[in-house]
Amino acid sequence: MKPLFAKGPSLGVHLLVLVVMSITLMVVDARFPLLKPVRSQMGLVLMESYHITDLPQSLWQGIASQFGSRTELVAENEKLKTEALLMQGRVQKLAALTEQNVRLRELLNSSALVNEKVEVAELIGVDPNPFTHRILINKGERDGVVLGQPVLDARGLMGQVVELMPYTARVLLLTDTTHSIPVQVNRNGLRAIASGTGNPERLELRHVADTADIKEGDLLVSSGLGQRFPAGYPVATVREVIHDSGQPFAIVRAVPTAALNRSRYLLLVFTDSRTPEQRAADAAMAQEAADRQGLPGSGDAAQPGAAATPPAPATGTAPATPASNGQAPDVAPAPTTTPAAAAPTSTPERH
């Protein structure tokens, strides 16, 4: 009787056969080129299987790298935009101050600073009414924004805050028909009033004399006389000056320097809230304190306090001092200009 399952060769025989076949293939592959095409095809099959098994890890690394690089680039881009906006705002101020050479600011003890405190805001909405030029920004009362606060972009002044909400604010643009701003020609200091026309690409200068020294291409900067906008920021560039011999005033049209229809990131300027009189008084007090502490023990240090009282007017019978040998002195003592007397000069001339 035959068994149900026939027994085959043992495992040892199988192993011996495989070892002999492996040695034979290695010898043939080393001495003859017969197996090179087979080896090449096997390499392709193994390479494809390697790519398939490595595909999940490669995809994960690629996705992680793409998202990580994009996040880093977006963060770096936002940082560079903010830095560029701040630097361009400072360049505007420095350009105006360089042209003016700080000639009137130092004489009037003005505190017009080159670097005001600023904060970056983003435009989040535009008023749909075509007859009003207003925008909505993402900074409000909780961020320290106040009514009347100046707003500018990287090129120049844009407008001022006219409505406050806790986290947002509305800004009235320069080109609105209800808005006007005192300006001056950066070339010669000629003062004027720039008013909105309802056209986002045009401002008009009102009541400019026909003989005024103003020409096409002149840069108009804020004069600071309205006590609302800081002085020295670009407002517009004169595009057209029309002279009419029959009219007392010239027609002057200008183009705003700010990109009112394109800017998305804006700057809120935090200016000194003190009035010119308060700034002058504070400057006078600081100067008086510095004079008192300047030269202790010398005769000059005691004179500022004595000079606070107005000197008696010189007359023909004025008593002679020993130094003048019986004659009235030709020149008043050195500290004749007192801080109290210098204070009124710091009040800017109003329109």
UniProtKB/TrEMBL annotation:
Domain Rod shape-determining protein MreC beta-barrel core: 124-269
Keywords: Cell shape, Membrane, Transmembrane, Transmembrane helix
Region (Disordered): 279-351
TM spans (from-to): 12-32
Compositionally biased residues, Low complexity: 298-323, 333-351
Domain of life per record: Bacteria
Family: Belongs to the MreC family.
Protein name: Cell shape-determining protein MreC
Phylogenetic classification of the source organism: Bacteria, Pseudomonadati, Pseudomonadota, Gammaproteobacteria, Pseudomonadales
